[in-house]
Amino acid sequence: MLVAKKPLTSYATLRGQQKAKKIVSRMYHSGRLSHAYLFRGPDGVGKRLCANLFAAHLNCENPAADGGCGECSSCRKYLSGNHPDITVIGPENGTIKIDRIRELCRSLTYPPYESAIRVVVLEDIHTMRLEAANSLLKTLEEPPENNVLILTAEVSRDILPTIISRCQIVPFYGLSIEETTEVLAAHLAEMDGGEAAMLAKLSDGSPGKALFLKQKNLVDTWCRVRRILEVDEEEADASIGSLLAAAEEIALLKDDLAALLGLMRIWACDSAVRATTARQRNEQLARLAALDRAERSLARNCNRTLVCEVLLFNLQSPFPRVSS
Ligand SMILES: [Zn+2]
């Protein structure tokens, strides 16, 4: 039987997030829209996509039960990224500037260009400084008619309580490992299953974060380092040169080093689970302790190359080698 393909404007294009999709869809069908929403959850789990799908649904000329039709003039403009009444504003150089907020508040006083409702998506509002956040408050409380504001924010970051209290909250959550792997496979056809599963696990159910790791080649780096760490005991001495070179290389990763240490932690945890003898298990526990020590040293701004060298030695030989 032929199954009709869902348009890209359907909520079905967003993986997981059943609760958020249910809330958004209920709001749409009840006809009682709030003037401001706050989509709150981890980074990279679909908040932006959901905000955009909701915006497309609100403006669709032949709306379906699960989103925009994908074919009307409004949906086509949305899909081409040129909808005059759907605006997305995000951080520039790490923050949403106050000038951008002032400009937005001014522009909302004019009616929408061609739609019944203008939708403004303000991304990552946790990056706004206090001054910018305060300048948004009045508009958030009483936005001019025919405007809907959708704010997104990372769940663990602080937001002014006065912003939260003016919005209807829509919660987002991390995806399951299976769901994350599926999203990755859909985005990166060339990725093999093992790499996708490793990224899914490391990213804690955030496909956005997993794609970031992939983009930074951190998995490739980790696979090379792992080959050095997993040499046989008798080859360990001969691998010292490559181990020191690897330590120097990963010390240069700066902020991305934390993500690499996360991959090492998964490796040690997985090996501990698979261990069949007490010695093997203790080896992995010693590796986890070495990772803890390295993280603490890095947080104290110790010499990064030195910390990485000691770490790789301890991961390769978790117990001191007995010299003959
Ligand atoms: Zn449509």
Q: According to CATH, what is the topology of the largest domain?
A: Rossmann fold
Tally the helices: what do you get?
Answer: 14
* Poorly predicted residue ranges: none
**Rg to the nearest angstrom?**
25 Å
Total domains: 2
Bound molecules: zinc ion
- The helix/strand class is alpha/beta
Which percent range fits the helix content? Answer: 40-55%
Distance between the termini: 71 Å
The shape, in one word, is: elongated
Task: Characterize the structure shown.
Helix 1 (18-30) runs parallel beside helix 2 (47-59) and helix 13 (278-299) runs antiparallel to helix 14. This protein has 14 helices and five strands. It has a five-stranded parallel beta sheet, covered by helices on one side. It has two domains: 11-171, P-loop containing nucleotide triphosphate hydrolases (Rossmann fold); 216-316. The protein has helices spanning 18-30, 47-59, 73-79, 98-107, 130-141, 161-164, 177-187, 193-202, 207-215, 218-229, 240-251, 257-274, 278-299, 304-316, and strands at 36-41, 86-89, 118-122, 147-154, 168-171. Helix 4 links the parallel strand 2 and strand 3. The model has no long low-confidence stretch (mean pLDDT 89). The chain is α/β, with parallel strands linked by helices and 324 residues long. It binds zinc ion. Zinc ion binds at residues 60-62, 68-69, 71-72, 74-75.
Features:
single chain; 324 residues; alpha/beta; Rossmann fold; 2 domains; 5 strands
Topology record:
Elements: H1 18-30, E1 36-41, H2 47-59, H3 73-79, E2 86-89, H4 98-107, E3 118-122, H5 130-141, E4 147-154, H6 161-164, E5 168-171, H7 177-187, H8 193-202, H9 207-215, H10 218-229, H11 240-251, H12 257-274, H13 278-299, H14 304-316
Parallel strand pairs: 1-4, 1-5, 2-3, 3-4
Helix pairs in contact: 1-2, 4-5, 7-8, 8-9, 10-11, 10-12, 11-14, 12-13, 13-14
Bound molecules: zinc ion (ZN).
